[in-house]
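3.2 Worked example (two chains)
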Amino acid sequence: QVQLVESGGGLVQAGGSLRLSCAASGTFFSINDMGWYRQAPGKQRELVAGISSGGSTNYADSVKGRFTISRENAKNTVYLQMNSLKPEDTDVYYCNAHVMTTWFTGRDYWGQGTQVTVSS
């Protein structure tokens, strides 16, 4: 059983910062890509930022220059540093990881979601 546990969401004023964390636990072989998604009510979940096991990153255009994704492979943890937050960044943020449960078998896992609210 693999679990992704998120932390770090909350309420912040526009222009402020938050740091999200997501730690994977359980029994598995390795973790490949990890990422952060967000979803507003009635909308599709969208990719915010992704990072490969080797550290290559990609970002949604709307967060480039403001958000930074990073990971600590030894801790099976991915982070999202969010700076210069805007009210439109208000959403539920979900952690995602492609976990290899054996050498050749993997699947995606999701965290429970953490609310980020940015007030104007």
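3.2.1 Second chain
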Amino acid sequence: QVQLVESGGGLVQAGGSLRLSCAASERIFSITTMGWYRQAPGKQRELVARITSGGTINYAESVKGRFTISGDNAKNTVYLQMNDLKPGDTAVYYCNFYVWPSRNYWGQGTQVTVSS
């Protein structure tokens, strides 16, 4: 079965940068949306950024101007460049591929910790 493999998390000081990567273990056809979610302890999972197959991009208000999502639908890869990281960005980050109408694939999660 398909797995999404993530990398790039780690510990960084406030103001630093990290780049997260995600790739599917097998080819997925006709991906509708690729995105990144995060979940901090005691909080609900939230959408960080997503990009559609047509190139439309959405960001959470809290990361606008600091994070950039990019990807290649044909290569089943998605990236999240995170700049000017803040302690509030600390969370487990999950990549997600959505295929219309009802299929979702999730990464295993990668920890991002930002120290003050």
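3.3 Remarks
The radius of gyration is 14 Å.
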